[in-house]
Design goal:
five-stranded mixed sheet; alpha/beta; about 25% strand; about 40% helix; about 90 residues; single chain
Length: about 90
């Protein structure tokens, strides 16, 4: 079972990225939930909220977004730390 906190984090991330007006980026280092479980959460969240963003599965992370608005989700701390400083929201949970 996916913790309800994860849904709140995903909502915060989506809201934050959208509020940037076409150039939002976020990264989430998920320490307590597998990427497979996060992927299922994203699919469910997208369906419920009619979000037509694409999901890409990479070696160390998931990418979720469209155009210039992207979210990276990883459980790899080195990948998280290596991301550019201009990312507007960074969550470590």
């Amino acid at each position: 079972m996916i913790p309800s906190t994860n849904r709140k984090i995903l909502d915060l991330i989506y809201t934050s990225v959208m509020s940037e007006g076409g150039d939002g980026d976020a990264i989430w280092l998920t320490k307590h939930t597998s990427l497979d479980d996060i992927l299922e959460l994203i699919k469910s969240y997208s369906l419920e909220n009619k979000i037509d963003w694409e999901i890409t599965i990479e070696q160390k992370h998931l990418s979720w977004g469209s155009g210039h608005e992207w979210v990276l989700i990883t459980n790899d701390e080195e990948f998280f730390k290596s991301q550019p400083s201009w990312i507007t929201l960074k969550i470590n949970y």
